[in-house]
C-alpha cells in the first residue's frame, strides 16, 4: 500500500539529487533510506529511478509518484499546520501570496484592521517577484493570492477589491513633467526602471509600449520601492507605478505622474482563493475588510 512516507521519500530524492543528501534531509541513515527505496520499488513492481553517476533520474513511474507527492504532501502539511494552530488555541492561519510588489503596500493597510478583527488568526505572507501564485493556490502552499493579473481556472475564485490607475512617474524637472499624458514615443530615449519581473508581467510593456511597437532606450530593475523612487527623483530614469502608491509614499518627493495614453491604464487588485474555501470565516473576513477599506 502506498503511504505518505513513500511520497516524502520520492520528493526528498528529487529535491536533493542523491540518496545520501535525501537521507540527511529526512533525518535517516543512508542504509535505512536505501532499504526503504528498494522496498518501495518491490512493492510497486517497477523501478522508480536509475543511477546516472552519483545522481538519480526518475523513471516514468517515479515521475508519476513525484507529481503525486507534489500535489498531496502540501495538503497534508497544510492540514497539520492548521490542526497544530487549533491545538495551540488559535483559530487559523491565513497564508497570503503576493504577485506584485506594490500590492504589499496595499496589504499593509488591510492587515492591521484584519488582525484586530480576527485576534485568533495569524497571517503569513509569501512574496516573490516571480511568485507562481496560481500554482501555489492549487498546491495548497497559500490560501489567498493577491494579484493584479488573475488567471481564472477551475476551482479558483478571483474577486476585485481595489481599483487603481497605472501612471508614468518622472522627476519634477524632467522634460516630460510639463505634460499630463505620456505617449509610447515619449519613452524611446528613456531609461525605464521597474521591479525585477518579466516584461510579460509589466503593464508598461504589455498595455502601452508593445501595442504601439515602441520600446525604451534602457531597462533597469530595482527591488525596493523606496530606492526606485529615489532613482527616478534623481533623474536616473522613469517608472510606471500605481497612482495611489505615489500619492501615499512619495507625496513630498519631486515627482510628477502622467497618464499613460489618452485613455490611461486602469487595473484592479484581486483576491484569489480556492472555491471550496471562499466561505471559510476568516478568509471571507479578509475579503470583506479589504472591500470595506476600498469603499
TrEMBL record:
Keyword RNA-binding: no
Organism from which the protein derives: Cardiobacterium valvarum
Major localization listed first in the record, in broad terms: cytoplasm
UniProt record similarity statement: Belongs to the LysR transcriptional regulatory family.
One BP term from GO: methionine biosynthetic process
InterPro entries documented for this protein: LysR_HTH_N, LysR_subst-bd, MetR_PBP2, WH-like_DNA-bd_sf, WH_DNA-bd_sf
Location of this chain's protein in the cell: Cytoplasm
UniProt keywords, alphabetically: Activator, Amino-acid biosynthesis, Cytoplasm, DNA-binding, Methionine biosynthesis, Repressor, Transcription, Transcription regulation
Name used for this protein in its record: HTH-type transcriptional regulator MetR
PROSITE patterns tied to this protein: HTH_LYSR (PS50931)
Any one GO CC term of the record: cytoplasm
Domain HTH lysR-type: 1-59
GO MF terms, alphabetically ordered: DNA-binding transcription factor activity; transcription cis-regulatory region binding
Keyword Transcription recorded: yes
Amino acid at each position: 500500500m502506498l503511504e505518505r512516507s513513500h511520497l516524502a521519500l520520492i520528493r526528498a530524492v528529487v529535491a536533493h539529487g542523491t540518496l545520501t543528501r535525501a537521507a540527511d534531509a529526512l533525518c535517516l541513515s543512508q542504509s535505512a533510506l536505501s532499504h526503504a527505496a528498494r522496498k518501495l520499488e518491490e512493492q510497486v513492481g517497477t523501478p522508480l529511478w536509475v543511477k546516472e553517476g552519483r545522481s538519480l533520474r526518475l523513471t516514468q513511474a517515479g515521475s508519476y509518484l513525484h507529481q503525486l507527492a507534489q500535489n498531496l504532501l502540501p495538503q497534508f502539511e497544510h492540514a497539520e499546520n492548521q490542526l497544530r494552530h487549533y491545538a495551540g488555541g488559535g483559530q487559523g492561519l491565513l497564508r497570503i501570496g503576493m504577485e506584485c510588489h506594490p500590492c504589499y503596500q496595499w496589504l499593509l493597510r488591510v492587515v492591521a484592521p484584519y488582525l484586530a478583527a480576527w485576534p485568533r488568526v495569524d497571517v503569513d505572507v509569501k512574496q516573490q517577484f516571480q511568485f507562481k501564485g496560481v500554482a501555489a493556490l492549487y498546491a495548497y502552499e497559500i490560501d489567498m493570492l493577491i494579484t493584479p493579473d488573475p488567471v481564472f481556472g477551475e476551482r479558483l475564485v478571483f474577486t476585485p477589491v481595489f481599483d487603481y490607475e497605472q501612471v508614468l512617474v518622472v522627476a519634477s524637472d524632467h522634460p516630460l513633467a510639463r505634460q499630463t499624458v505620456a505617449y509610447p514615443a515619449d519613452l524611446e530615449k528613456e531609461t525605464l526602471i521597474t521591479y525585477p519581473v518579466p516584461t510579460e508581467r509589466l503593464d508598461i510593456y504589455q498595455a502601452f509600449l508593445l501595442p504601439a511597437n515602441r520600446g525604451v532606450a534602457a531597462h533597469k530593475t530595482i527591488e525596493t520601492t523606496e530606492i526606485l523612487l529615489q532613482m527616478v527623483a534623481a533623474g536616473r530614469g522613469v517608472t510606471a507605478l500605481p497612482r495611489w502608491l505615489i500619492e501615499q509614499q512619495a507625496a513630498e518627493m519631486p515627482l510628477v505622474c502622467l497618464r499613460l495614453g489618452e485613455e490611461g491604464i486602469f487595473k484592479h487588485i484581486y483576491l484569489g482563493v480556492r472555491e471550496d474555501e471562499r466561505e471559510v470565516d476568516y478568509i471571507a473576513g479578509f475579503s470583506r475588510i479589504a472591500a470595506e477599506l476600498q469603499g
